[in-house]
Amino acid sequence: MIEIYETQRAMRNMRKAAMQRGVVAVLDVGTFKISCLVLRFDGTDSQNEVEGVGSMAGQTGFRVIGAATTRSRGVRFGEIDAMQETERAIRTAIQAAQKMARIRVDHVIACFSGAAPRSYGLAGKIALEGHVVTEHDVARVLAECDVPDFGFGREVLHAQPVNFALDHRSGLNDPRGQMGQELSTDMHMLTVDATAVQNLAYCVKRCDLELAGIASSAYVAGMASLVEDEQELGAACIDIGGGATGISIFMKKHMIYADTVRMGGDHVTSDISMGLQVPTAVAERIKTRNGGVVATGMDDRDLIELEGETGDWEHDRRTVSRAELIGIMRPRVEEILEEVRERLDAAGFEHLPSQQIVLTGGSSQIPGLDGLASKILGQQVRLGRPMRVHGLPQAATGPGFSSAVGMCLYATHPQDEWWDFDLPIERSSVRTIRRAVRWLRDNW
To answer: SHS2 domain spans which residues (predicted)?
Structure first.
């Protein structure tokens, strides 16, 4: 646990140093595409004023000066499957973005989906030594959170305090400087498969780049797609990508739950390819141009030319009705949404004051998806696009770029994480030893 804390803290410091030099790149490693944005900072940085970051610190102005996208290769279910192919794709995206920005980039902040994320809610409580809450008290109460045994081969990706309470006053964002007797906190911790993180870090290193931060795609897509009221009152962001569908729930402007469904738009394309007996490239084009999930009376007469390239003229010049295409696509889309509903039910989403659901990601653009989602999920559903950031090209403003834009916000306006504070590590280690002794005494 101490090693994870130190690694994340080192990456945080590296990111701050890169931002002070003025340039950093963000990388969205997806199953369908790899996107890279190069950010330049204008120097209005107030993070030097306080030790913490995010809501407890200032913000940084930035501008996108380079953007590039390439077809993803070697990534499956949001995780790296073929190292050399992924390295080649990342190099292509980085070099194209650097060429547009006319500057060399040394540090990148990456996000990825998949890796079987799991959410944990932790709580900690301490008695204040003085009457005024200090930075050291915040660090002590975070160290008091009893971390569960999340299993071998898992890494902590995010560990964010989502609420502070001082005596009987709850809902505090920043308790420092306030007076009280007892300080308590609630923290959300997200763990992922360690192998997926290590593969991504190694791949970035092979590209001669320094990894200055890493985040969950579901988290950053929610940051970019949810408006302020939705983040405050409670909303879920469903990021439907190519190989995985990310789920994140926000409340009081903090992520309180995240999960991933290992299905996405590529599975719909694969169904079309097998159902119509056409190559994957043709199936993707048909899905993009003519796809949908709600059939009308006109769709039986709306014929689609398959335009295959097998050399068999009769096979290549076949036509299918749009109703047949919808009949292939709808069952898979329904399956994805049913899986999403199961995860939302398990998270207790129905107990939030507001139950808005926002669909984003490249595959959310299927016509009629929002109507089908409102029937299956039974909530208020809207299609979300990422908020506009300064200098972002028009081609990168669609739902497919929610994670990339969210990474810009994550890099420049980060929320507090556990490793932003100087935790009393020695005390935490002693508590771990005591817990081990207690377990031995109880079980042997």
So the answer is: 24-225
Sole residue written with tokens 């008091």: 144
Mean pLDDT, residues 405-434: 70
Rounded to whole angstroms, how far apart are CA atoms 329 and 363? 12
Alpha-carbon span 295 to 299, nearest angstrom: 6
> Helices marked H in 311-401 — which ranges?
313-316, 322-346, 369-377
Give the tens place of pLDDT for each residue, 124-169: 998 987 778 888 888 888 888 888 888 888 888 898 999 999 988 8
Q: For 285-318, b where at least 16 C-beta lie within 10 A, e where not — what string?
A: bbbeebbbbebeeebeeeebebebeeeeeeeeeb
Q: Give me the domains of the chain, ranges plus CATH numbers.
A: 118-194 (3.30.1490.110), 266-330 (3.30.420.40)
Residue 442: per-residue pLDDT: 57
8 A C-beta contact, residue 143 and residue 124: yes
Closest CA to 69 of 102, 112, 103, 37: 37
Q: What is the DSSP string of 274-333?
A: HHHT--HHHHHHHHHHH--S---GGGGT-EEE----SS-HHHHT-EEEHHHHHHHHHHHH
pLDDT at 145: 87
**Nearest 10 degrees: Cα torsion 154, 159, 162, 165:** 110
